[in-house]
Design brief:
seven-stranded mixed sheet; Lambda Exonuclease, Chain A; 10 strands; three-stranded antiparallel sheet; 260 residues; alpha+beta
Length: 260
């Protein structure tokens, strides 16, 4: 019996935000970049979020302390930053979906909470005269075994929407990785060359306007991303399989038998 042919191509699973390349799982660009320790600003943001809640909602905090006690109150306060993060993440996802449809010339029904963001995005598109956009393309690299999803190619550049507090340095690695991919999946489901780019930009979309920030772009930054790609594999080997103790760089505890 002949062996089952190996599947070819790049498949994106949006629900899990994961990628399979030629039948094998490959890490996404943002997952790879996550190996960098970017926790400092987020730790500060989490502390500020909790402090602001305690300062703004003293009666709620007092009521929870009185009726729930210490531990439930602590658990509630600890969860606030993650809840805010998840809400912001969903807000960004919704905006990306709306922006994609607008760029494709489709009509959209904009939720009230997204109106400001969408108006800012339209202002950007008009001000920068974005033409012939290539939108939300899945990018892959067989040589370096990674994949990702680029927001926008247009006007000789690669652009990325950001709706968070700021645009961070890791965005440069992200966009250089996309531009350095070997192929993208077109609307026809086939592989096509990634458009040539001369620059990369982060577009910081806010309800009251937008900012366009140039990002370092070129072979040097792509090589630095490849270093991060290697660090990702090193970290994965070091951590091992969390389900199987001793598979990483930390072994299982020694058992010393009593000596008579």
């Amino acid at each position: 019996m002949s062996a089952k042919p190996k599947p070819n191509g790049l498949v994106y699973y949006p629900g899990a935000h994961r990628y399979k390349l030629d039948g094998e799982w490959v890490p996404g660009v943002t997952t790879i970049i996550g190996v960098l320790d970017k926790s400092r600003p987020f730790v500060s943001h989490a502390a500020r979020t909790i402090a602001e809640y305690v300062a703004d909602q003293p009666s709620t905090v007092d009521l929870m302390r009185e009726h729930g006690g210490h531990d439930p109150l602590v658990a509630f306060l600890k969860a606030i930053p993650n809840q805010r993060r998840d809400t912001a993440g969903q807000r960004g996802t919704t905006f990306h979906d709306l922006a994609e449809r607008i760029l494709l010339g489709q009509s959209v029904e904009v939720p009230a909470e997204q109106v400001g963001l969408v108006e800012s995005a339209i202002a950007f598109l008009e001000d920068y005269k974005i033409e012939l956009p290539i939108v939300e393309r899945v990018i892959g690299s067989r040589e370096h075994q990674y994949a990702g999803k680029a927001d926008l190619f247009a006007n000789g550049a690669i652009w990325d929407w950001k709706t968070g507090k700021a645009i961070y340095a890791s965005a440069a690695f992200q966009l250089n990785a996309y531009a350095g991919g070997e192929f993208m999946v077109g609307e026809d489901g086939k592989e096509h060359p990634v458009p040539e780019c001369e620059a990369a930009y982060g577009v910081h979309i806010r309800e009251d306007g937008y900012e366009v920030l140039p990002l370092e772009f070129g072979p040097r930054i792509f090589d630095e991303f490849l270093c991060i790609r290697k660090a990702f594999d090193i970290n994965k080997r070091a951590e091992g399989n969390w389900k199987i103790p001793g598979t990483g760089y930390v072994g299982v505890p020694h058992i010393r038998e009593d000596v008579a």
